[in-house]
Amino acid sequence: MYLDYYELTTYPFRTNPDPGFLWFGEKHKEALSLLKYGILKQDGFLLLTGDVGTGKTSLIRYLLKSIDSSALVATIHDPDMPTIDFFNYLSEEFKMNRVFTNKADFLIHFKKFLLRAHSDHQSIFVIIDEAQRLNHERLEEIRLLSNIELDDQKLINIFFIGQSEIEKILMDEKNKAIGQRINLSYHIQPLDELETVHYIAHRLKIAGAKRGIFTVAACREIFSISGGVPRLINSMCDCALLSGFARDRKVVDLKLINECQIDLRIPIGTIVKHNKPAQDP
Description:
Blueprint lengths: L2 H4 L19 H16 L3 E6 L5 H11 L5 E5 L6 H11 L9 H17 L4 E5 L7 H11 L2 E2 L2 E2 L2 E6 L2 H7 L4 H4 L4 E5 L4 H14 L9 H11 L3 H17 L7 H11 L17
Parallel strand pairs: 1-6, 1-7, 2-3, 3-6
Antiparallel strand pairs: 4-5
Helix pairs in contact: 9-10, 10-11, 10-12, 11-12
């Protein structure tokens, strides 16, 4: 709707994950380095956490594109399912070409699958998104799968990706058998003010912007309102561009951002206070 008005080639602030727009600030560089190290080390378990909208899924999608083509990867977007469905989901992801009706049958064939992959020099990765939705029963099943080894070498690597709640779940006494196995973990923090300015500029550049559209004060206010959470930043910026188009405003300033905060009904409690208020010259 506003693409021609702002001379953009695509919408820069969609809220759905898009690796093409991924911006590597220090926090995301560190997280990606950890994920890549986990792939190289193949130590069994890795944990990546972050609040809603901090870019975990975008990182995973970027990572999947960079994984060696010989690796076999299963991505589970929501692990909250019955056990047999969980097993059959893995079977489908790994193209085992079987539907299982009981746990014993699955474990027998899954072990054969892992051993065959190992002999073919193929690494196995299971990436579990929304890991905070895992219950004790599912964690126990995952632990059993991780117990399948060959000469003390891990045959399967499991990445837990989720909100901070998964840390509490793994620290629970009944889940300590698997929690104690996680040697690599990282928590993605929201962006700071300067990172927010760079993030907005990066996405506009990828979308074809030929000039600055947002004032510095507008970017600072977006940070204050969003708390540096990329998904909220995207919502604010998209609203601002739409409002600017509707009001024939080629530059997004502080006033437009404040209007968008009201339009989006973002709670005042999310605002981070600063010593110096944002203001346009």
